[in-house]
Design a protein that fits this description.
The chain folds into two domains: 127 residues, Alpha-Beta Complex (Aspartate Aminotransferase, domain 1), CATH 3.90.1150; 243 residues, Aspartate Aminotransferase, domain 2. It is built from 14 helices and 14 strands. The strands form four sheets. It has a seven-stranded mixed beta sheet, with helices on both faces. β8, α7 and β9 form a beta-alpha-beta unit. The longest helix has 21 residues. It binds pyridoxal-5'-phosphate. The site of pyridoxal-5'-phosphate has 14 residues, from α3. Keywords: Aminotransferase, Pyridoxal phosphate, Transferase. This is Pyridoxal-phosphate-dependent aminotransferase family protein. Belongs to the class-V pyridoxal-phosphate-dependent aminotransferase family. It comes from Phaeospirillum tilakii.
């Protein structure tokens, strides 16, 4: 047998930068050392050790979701897999679904509903606005919906659905189970699954939780679970079948080999959240994001979304005419080793404020890099004024890092 010559491959060390870039975009976000080191461990996916880890992950997830639900499941896959798990288990062919669409990610839920044959009505929210409860109620009245989908924070254009609690209350009043995407917002701002009437809460690892991408979490309410158990239509997805996943997550038996290292990483990320406590964490995020926003504006740039609908977890910046967002990003990463995000199709920049991104030392480096790169790219900005204003807001709201 003659084997062709194996390919010549450059070692990773020669591809990766000597010093990692500071990840200040829309995710993935920097991970704490404890998370990174847990992610380097492999253990048996079944047995006592794993069972103890899983028990704790569920206990901590209940705290972070603010729920008493017994239906917390991990998902091997991106947050999109958790979205798909919620949709494919709760929507049968012909199920009437009302989907509130603010942008790309809430639109992804619409597409997922389509693909499983749901009868979806899209409630299109005007640009740069949060979904208004009155508008949602008008749509719900028209009728017969069994499922409502909504995103808490629309990462793609940095809109915050601030009336989420009221929208969920309406959804329940009109007979829906509420599917809520909290991928970028979970643990950065309030979310009370039980209190608000959320029936399926979706999250990923790499944003608010500051864990790794590819291992996600979902929780179903008792009402959602009752629907899943009573479901008649066949389930086309085997990996995402919640009843099968329940075997591993709640019955100590086998579904598929869990991504053990990623679950260990998630364990550590959740543990750090519990240690910090939710109120302290929400406050850290609120203060850091407010300081960053104030600094950006004081520098002479405009924020994309008006204050009443603006997301704190990801800050959107309008790029001045004649300045290229891509050029600014390029300069920031080449010269200052700070990476931020552009947007899908818009000439804007986005800076994340999720988990480890909301640390004062990261803010200084990021705002400085943004100001300096803007100037090189031809933007008329005043970086020292921005830095001074950010410092002022931080100093008047001392945040413990
Ligand atoms: C990032 C994100 C997703 C998708 O996450 P993936 O891990 O890339 O699948 C979904 N919804 C929201 C709100 C997000 O921010």
């Amino acid at each position: 047998m003659h084997y062709p010559k194996p390919p010549e491959i450059i070692p990773l060390d020669n591809i990766l930068p000597d010093e990692p870039l500071l990840m200040m975009g829309a995710g993935p976000v920097p991970i704490p050392h404890k998370v990174a080191s847990a992610n380097s461990v492999v253990i048996n996916h079944l047995g006592d050790t794993m069972n103890r880890v899983i028990e704790q992950v569920k206990i901590m997830a209940r705290y972070v979701f603010q729920t008493e639900s017994g239906h917390v499941l991990g998902v091997s896959g991106p947050a999109s897999a958790a979205m798909e798990m919620a949709v494919c288990n709760l929507v049968e062919p012909g199920t009437k679904v009302l989907s509130i669409r603010n942008g790309l990610f809430s639109g992804r839920l619409v597409e997922m509903v389509h693909r499983v044959g749901g009868d979806v009505t899209v409630l299109e929210i005007p640009d740069k606005q949060a979904a208004a409860p009155e508008m949602v109620e008008r749509a719900l009245k028209e009728g017969g919906y069994k499922v409502l989908t909504v995103v808490q924070g629309e990462t793609s254009n940095t809109v915050w659905n601030r009336h989420l609690a009221e929208i969920c209350r309406l959804g329940k009043a009109y007979g829906c189970v509420n599917i809520v995407d909290t991928v970028c917002t979970l643990s950065t701002m309030e979310l009370e699954m039980d209190e608000w009437g959320v029936d399926a809460v979706i999250t990923g690892g790499q944003k608010g939780l500051s864990s790794i991408p590819g291992v996600s979490l979902i929780a179903f309410s008792d009402e959602a679970w009752a629907r899943i158990v009573a479901r008649n239509a066949p389930m086309s997805h085997w990996c995402l079948d919640a009843r099968l996943a329940d075997k591993f997550w709640n019955q100590q038996s086998y579904h598929y080999t869990a991504p053990v290292s990623g679950v260990l990483a998630l364990h550590e990320a959740l543990r750090l959240i519990c240690e910090e406590t939710l109120p302290a964490r929400f406050r850290r995020h609120a203060v850091c994001s407010a300081a960053l926003q104030a600094g950006i504006e004081a520098m002479g740039l405009d924020l994309l979304i008006p204050a009443e609908a603006r997301l704190n977890s990801v800050v959107g910046i309008s790029v001045p005419d004649g300045v290229s967002a891509d050029r600014v990003r390029h300069i920031m990463s080449q010269l200052y080793r700070v990476e931020i995000s552009g947007a899908f199709g818009l000439n804007i920049l986005r800076i994340g404020q999720m988990g480890e991104q909301s640390r004062t030392h990261h803010l200084s480096r990021t705002l400085h890099a943004l100001g300096a790169a803007m100037r090189v790219a031809g933007g008329r900005v005043d970086p020292p004024a921005g830095m001074a204003e950010m410092e002022r807001v931080l100093a008047s709201n001392v945040v413990r890092n």
